[in-house]
């Protein structure tokens, strides 16, 4: 696989918060776009399993953004991906997920928490502090963050959802008392909040007027954040890449050398490091659109249906006869794998939110329902029951599951299951996914090898 070469060492910064909903993504995008507009070579990254935010980072910076995950990636893969994320950048700005210390019960440095990434690379933390409903008391939250983990350096805070100049002054009184710098104060501005749906933000490619939204966020950052202070706060290191095959880290080989990958508004959730790794291994990725009723190209030797939002497009997919007939014909001679939404489409049927059942490809013995919603969320450790697109029988994989759809058919037996699965702490979750002939799929999103 090709080397991920960093032409010059970048410094790093982690933008985090004490909890979800604090405005990390809005502030991150504002900073990325504003710093790019100033001429800085700035790149984005996302801590933890997230399919949507990296696409927004890429739109804001014009550079690829990657996921960094201390639980699902071993050290070699994590370093390789971090090196790729900072390739030819001066500053790598990583956005946290959930709260700074939120992760699973695991050994230090492998919990999946944002804090692990900052500690591993020595990146200072800038805390996005949601001060709505608080004034001086907000300083107690910042103080707790600073004291909780001695591995970290808290460089300062950016106040978010500030109601008025007086509100800002009151908050700053508390922070001055404990000696934590305020790097900016972002006013409450509902018009700049990005639209959301059930798995998070509306995708970057679907967001109307994305460029103008990003520019307005950059204007907001220029007016309310000390950009020079933010850049000056960066530190630590972005790991340098060694050339050679092994430097990619712990990734499975591509499922094919000419790989048809579904890509449109219904199928878009592929971790960027996987596609980069596949290309580095010599694979060619050939995109096609099921929503445009395109079949997997016949000159490909494997097909990958990623996750996304098929439940929002079930009627169109059911009516896409060229796609459905094409994927059925493809599966007669070549491997087809579906992740999450792709798994749903490879099944017998998909029930949408209104309770209407739509026929799908019928390649796997599973029916799914978005009407019978239940949140399925968390890391998954999988051991393959049989050989297929993801590897040989017995291969260990690690990934993540995040969906609301439910399987309404019986669980698979050992002769048709894809994998035996546990949660992050090793608690057994039973058999999951399906395999039939050359076709396989599950709700599991692959991150790396275990």
TrEMBL record:
Q: Which SUPFAM superfamilies match?
A: Class I glutamine amidotransferase-like, P-loop containing nucleoside triphosphate hydrolases
Reported EC number(s) for this entry are 6.3.5.9
Keyword Ligase recorded? yes
Q: Name one Pfam family in it.
A: GATase_3
PROSITE patterns xref list: GATASE_COBBQ
Domain CobQ/CobB/MinD/ParA nucleotide binding: from-to ranges: 15-198
Q: What class of enzyme is it?
A: ligase
> Hey, which pathway is this one from?
Cofactor biosynthesis; adenosylcobalamin biosynthesis; cob(II)yrinate a,c-diamide from precorrin-2 (aerobic route): step 9/10
- Entry coiled-coil feature ranges: none
The GO molecular function terms of this record are: ATP binding; cobyrinic acid a,c-diamide synthase activity; hydrogenobyrinic acid a,c-diamide synthase (glutamine-hydrolysing) activity
Cofactor(s) needed, names only, are: Mg(2+)
Q: Which residues form the active site?
A: 340 (nucleophile)
Residue ranges of the CobB/CobQ-like glutamine amidotransferase domain? 259-447
Q: Which GO terms describe its biological process?
A: cobalamin biosynthetic process
What else does UniProt say about it? The a and c carboxylates of hydrogenobyrinate are activated for nucleophilic attack via formation of a phosphorylated intermediate by ATP. CobB catalyzes first the amidation of the c-carboxylate, and then that of the a-carboxylate.
Full protein name: Hydrogenobyrinate a,c-diamide synthase
């Amino acid at each position: 696989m090709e080397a991920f070469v960093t032409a010059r060492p970048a410094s790093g910064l982690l933008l985090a918060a004490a909890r979800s909903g604090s405005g990390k993504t809005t502030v991150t995008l504002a900073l990325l776009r504003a710093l790019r507009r100033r001429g800085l070579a700035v790149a984005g990254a996302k801590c933890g399993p997230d399919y949507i935010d990296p696409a927004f980072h890429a739109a804001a910076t014009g550079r690829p953004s990657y996921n960094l995950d201390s639980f699902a990636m071993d050290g070699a893969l994590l370093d390789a991906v971090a090196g790729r994320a900072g390739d030819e950048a001066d500053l790598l700005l990583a956005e946290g997920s959930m709260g700074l210390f939120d992760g699973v019960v695991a050994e230090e440095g492998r919990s999946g928490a944002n804090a692990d990434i900052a500690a591993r690379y020595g990146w200072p933390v800038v805390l996005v502090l949601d001060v709505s409903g608080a004034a001086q008391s907000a300083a107690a939250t910042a103080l707790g963050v600073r004291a909780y983990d001695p591995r970290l350096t808290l460089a300062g805070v950016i106040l978010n959802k500030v109601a008025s100049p007086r509100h800002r002054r009151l908050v700053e009184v508390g922070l001055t008392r404990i000696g934590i710098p305020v790097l900016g104060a972002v006013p409450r501005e509902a018009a700049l909040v990005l639209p959301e749906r059930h798995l998070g933000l509306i995708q970057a490619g679907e967001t109307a007027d994305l460029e103008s939204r990003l520019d307005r966020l950059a204007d907001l950052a220029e007016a309310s954040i000390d950009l020079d202070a933010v850049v000056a706060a960066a530190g630590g290191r972005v790991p340098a890449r060694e050339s050679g095959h092994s430097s990619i880290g712990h990734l499975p080989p591509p499922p094919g050398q000419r790989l048809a990958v579904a890509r449109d508004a219904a199928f878009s959730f592929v971790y960027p490091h996987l596609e980069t790794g596949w290309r580095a291994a010599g694979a060619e990725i050939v995109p096609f659109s099921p929503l445009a009723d395109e079949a997997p190209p016949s000159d490909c030797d494997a097909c990958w249906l990623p996750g996304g939002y098929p439940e929002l497009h079930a009627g169109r997919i059911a009516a896409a006869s060229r796609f459905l007939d094409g994927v059925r014909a493809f599966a007669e001679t070549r491997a087809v794998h579906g992740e999450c939404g792709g798994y749903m489409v490879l099944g017998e049927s998909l029930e949408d939110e209104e309770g209407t059942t739509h026929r799908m490809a019928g390649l796997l013995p599973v029916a799914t329902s978005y009407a019978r919603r239940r949140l399925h969320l968390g890391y998954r450790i999988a051991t393959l029951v049989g050989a297929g697109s993801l590897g040989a029988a017995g291969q260990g994989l690690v990934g993540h599951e995040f969906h609301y759809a439910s399987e309404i058919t019986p669980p698979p037996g050992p002769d048709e299951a894809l994998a035996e699965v546990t949660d992050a702490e090793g608690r057994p979750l039973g058999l999951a996914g399906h395999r039939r002939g050359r076709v396989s799929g599950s709700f599991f999103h692959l991150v790396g090898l275990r």
